[in-house]
Design goal:
Layout lengths: L10 E2 L3 E3 L5 E3 L7 E2 L10 E4 L2 E4 L4 E2 L1 E6 L13 E6 L13 H4 L3 H4 L2 E2 L2 H10 L4 E4 L8 H13 L3 E6 L8 H6 L3 E5 L5 H8 L4 H13 L3 E8 L7 H14 L6 E5 L14 H13 L5 E4 L4 H4 L1 E2 L6 E6 L2 E5 L1 E2 L2 E2 L22 E3 L3
Parallel strand pairs: 9-11, 11-12, 12-13, 13-14, 14-15, 15-16
Antiparallel strand pairs: 1-6, 2-3, 3-4, 5-6, 7-10, 8-9, 8-22, 17-18, 18-19, 20-21
Helix pairs in contact: 3-4, 8-9
Length: 361
């Protein structure tokens, strides 16, 4: 009989149960993968070893990098500050248009070249002057145990944590995962279950449930991103319906980023998103009463900047990740004094648009 040997980086997993037929059901994401001995889930990051599920990439990263917080994208959370960003490998979605496919579709042995304990990540963020740590590049849901341990240590040091996620997580795991996060940017990939099924091998409703949960039941700062893909999810009708849902369930003050697609992974024949598509989507969303709607991955000063909805003052000027004029006093407009929703703090930082890879191990 062959004995299964766990990997050195294997860490006990959470959110699973043993079924009557002996299989183990992973209950972290809505796939509910049912695992035989030695089998991995769809995400590849979680594996059954013996009679438990383990996270095989705990403490190992595909790389660490200091980014501007605006790149996540987060426009109303600690502007102009730096964030220590990292991911692992694997993903619980199968997006044919993935723009980080070399990480999200990788086996951990291919990509995990750096190692760091939660304490080392938090210490590095403090040493490097980062105000926050972001779990990104691949979806932090699949390495939840590692992300949560990092988040807890960061909180002890006064460092914020950010989840950049597709929001594909079960109601069972959702509360504990987001309880430790200070901010989240959730990908709403489309407003069509057919899109999610065909192009992501997933479902829309769990993502909507995550968005509603974050907005109504937590204090996590929330922003939303939708990558507009020509001919797939960019029709005026779909954006109109999504905007109605957004206004009703998330409200007028949650920032929404419409970003441009570029050909990648399995959709190399699909053209880039024209800037006019992003501007049209922004105007549709604004016509529904949404106050903070942005365009991204294009040069668009008007669509990339934050404007006061009441007096029209240019609050935060952006050209790409370069910030110009800044007319907020803490979280209030300098023009009319109205409060602007977000986590702006009393100091604005000065990181700029730089991207700096760092090695922790």
């Amino acid at each position: 009989m062959m004995v299964e040997a766990p990997r050195l980086s294997a860490h006990p997993g959470r959110w699973w149960t043993t079924l009557a037929d002996g299989r183990i059901e992973c209950r972290l994401c809505p796939r509910y993968c049912k695992l035989q001995r030695g089998q991995r889930g769809f995400c590849f990051a979680r594996q059954r070893i013996g009679d438990e599920v383990v996270l095989t990439a705990y403490g190992r990263s595909s790389g660490f990098c200091i980014d501007p917080i605006e790149k996540k994208p987060l426009y109303h959370f600690l502007p102009r500050t730096s964030v220590l960003s990292f991911g692992t490998a694997g993903c619980n979605l199968g997006c044919r248009f993935c723009q980080n496919w070399d990480i999200s579709k990788a086996r951990e042995s291919d990509r995990l070249a750096d190692e760091a304990s939660p304490e080392q990540v938090a210490k590095a963020a403090a040493r490097l002057g980062c105000h926050s740590v972001a779990f990104t590049y691949n979806d932090p849901v699949v390495f939840a145990e590692y992300a949560l341990d990092v988040a807890r240590v960061c909180r002890e040091r006064g460092i914020k944590t950010v989840a950049v996620t597709a929001g594909y997580i079960t109601g069972e795991a959702r509360p504990e995962f987001f309880r430790e996060m200070d901010a989240a940017n959730v990908d709403l990939k489309a407003f069509s279950d057919d899109f999610y099924r065909r192009l992501c091998f997933a479902r829309l409703q769990p993502v909507l449930d995550t968005l509603t949960y974050l907005r109504r039941e937590t204090g996590v700062w929330l922003e939303v991103t939708t990558l507009l893909i020509p001919g797939a999810n960019d029709s005026s009708d779909e954006i109109d319906r999504a905007s109605d849902w957004f206004a009703q369930h998330l409200g007028a003050d949650v920032p929404w980023h419409f970003t441009a697609f570029h050909p990648d992974f399995k959709m190399l024949a699909t053209p880039r998103t024209p800037p006019e598509t992003l501007q049209r989507a922004r105007e549709i969303a604004r016509s529904k009463g949404l106050r903070y709607v942005y365009t991204g991955n294009v040069r668009d000063r008007a669509g990339g900047s934050t404007w006061c909805p009441w007096c029209g003052t240019l609050l935060i000027e952006r050209e790409g990740y370069e910030l110009g004029a800044y007319n907020l006093e803490s979280n209030r407009c300098k023009g009319c004094g109205r409060r602007i929703p977000g986590r702006f703090g009393h100091q604005t930082g000065s990181w700029g648009a730089r991207r700096m890879p760092v090695k922790l191990s």
